[in-house]
Amino acid sequence: MLAFAPLHTAASAAATVVTWLAGTIAPLTGGAATAAAIVLFTVGVRLLISPLSLAQVRGERRRAALTPEVRDLQRRYADDPGRLQSELFALYRRAGASPVAGCLPALLQAPFFLVMYRLFATGDGHPQLLHEKLAGVPLGWHLGDGLTGPVVAVFGVLLAALLVLAWWSSRRARRAATATGTIAGAPTEGPGAAVLGRLVPLLPFTTVLVALVVPLAAVLYLVTTTAWTVLEQAVLRRPQPEGIDAR
Question: Which of 51, 53, 127, 240 is most buried, judged by most C-beta within 10 A?
Answer without folding.
Answer: 53
